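Risk register update: the risk of archive-format incompatibility is retired. Evidence:
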Amino acid sequence: MNLIIDDIDTRVEVSGGGLSLLMIHGWKDSLETFDELTKELENDYKVIRLDLPGFGGSQAPPEPWGASQYADFISKTLLKLEEPEIYAIIVHSMGARIAINALGRRAISADKLVIMAGAGIPDRTRSNKTIMATLAKSGSAVASVLPKDTQKKLRRKFYKMTGSTDYLDAGAMRDTFLKLVAEDSRKYATDVHAETLLIYSSNDRFTPPEYGEQFAELIPNSKLVIVEDLGHNIHKNDPKKILSLIEEFL
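Archived output:
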């Protein structure tokens, strides 16, 4: 179904019954990323999924958003669904930035949190921080006056330094991407009081297990599990294994 939340056409799926589970997808993804997990979880829980604004079947936000705007938007979506109380939140990748922000600021409350390959820790190198800050500060308006060749070189430089095509592929969502990746979720982590399960893969080069180790130290009631050789999309690469960890935790 589609709901209008703050004038944004938003795609939402609700299935199953029982205690409510909220699922938040990552960058360049959609609610379908959780299909395999949902098939099992909806047997015991009410599963709430949505396409975040700018992804899947949902309208883009009217301006560049950071994690706080996404967190507040999800809070309003839950109120629209008359689901003010969430038992657990399950997230992947960028979804961790939003969930940690939401729980840390009390925009959303939940008893439990499952983070799969969670992002939220900016690259520490000065070069990455410098170029991201410059791009964020200058914005599209300034960049657009540069010669096209110069624009392409800047984009390629950003790509080489971040090791990701996310910025190049973001299109109209580039400024939103910059706002999201610039936020350090660690500043909210100590205020997350939901019991937390962190699942990371040993060979994930996008969100390495070191991220999980840092979050495990900061989130008060948390447990870290490192699975072997599943890459970044751990919930798709071995849904049976990940589901068993989630069900045991819940």
